[in-house]
Specification:
Helix content is about 50%, strand content about 10%. By secondary structure, it is mainly alpha-helical. The chain binds zinc ion (2 copies).
Length: about 160
């Protein structure tokens, strides 16, 4: 039997128990772990399971796992190590968002996008559309209030 992601995680729980509630091993992190995270080198990449085609990485060596909070687990999934993101941003300076994406990378990506006039035009169009939506919604709400008032007045009159 091949030792896929699911099999390894089942083996982990069977051999090492649950990691939930143990201290997160990330340096400086004071949160409790939400589960096992791969802190060593991945030996395999592939689909999570037959029913989930999400691509995940795992190691067949159970010692490559350590307790981690969700945030640090996501961070590890995105690559890099505790000190640097895959693009070399220093973690302590930049940190990651709740999805584990490096803030430095995110900022660079935004800056790159903003430099693209096509992207800027799309963004402006989207903002205008949103504002128009909001106006239409407010208008409808005003009308609903007005209609309700009229109905009450009529009831009162009869
Ligand atoms: Zn953590
Ligand atoms: Zn980065």
């Amino acid at each position: 039997m091949s030792r896929g992601y699911q099999a390894i995680h089942a083996e982990l729980r069977a051999r090492r128990g649950s990691a939930v509630g143990l201290p997160c091993v990330a340096p400086g992190c004071s949160r409790l772990a939400d589960g096992w995270a791969l802190v060593g080198e991945a030996t395999n990449w592939g689909e999570k399971s037959d029913s989930e085609d999400k691509i995940v990485r795992w190691s067949t060596d159970l010692n490559d796992y350590a307790p981690c909070c969700d945030s640090h687990n996501h961070q590890l999934d995105k690559g890099g190590d505790w000190l640097y993101c895959p693009r070399g941003h220093y973690r302590t300076t930049w940190g990651v968002d709740s999805k584990g994406e490096c803030q430095g990378c995110r900022r660079e990506r935004r800056r790159r996008l903003r430099a693209d006039p096509e992207y800027r035009a799309r963004e402006t169009a989207r903002d205008l559309a949103r504002r128009a939506d909001r106006r239409a919604m407010n208008h409808r709400a005003d009308r609903a209030v007005a209609t309700g008032r009229t109905a009450t007045d009529q009831r009162r009159a009869s």
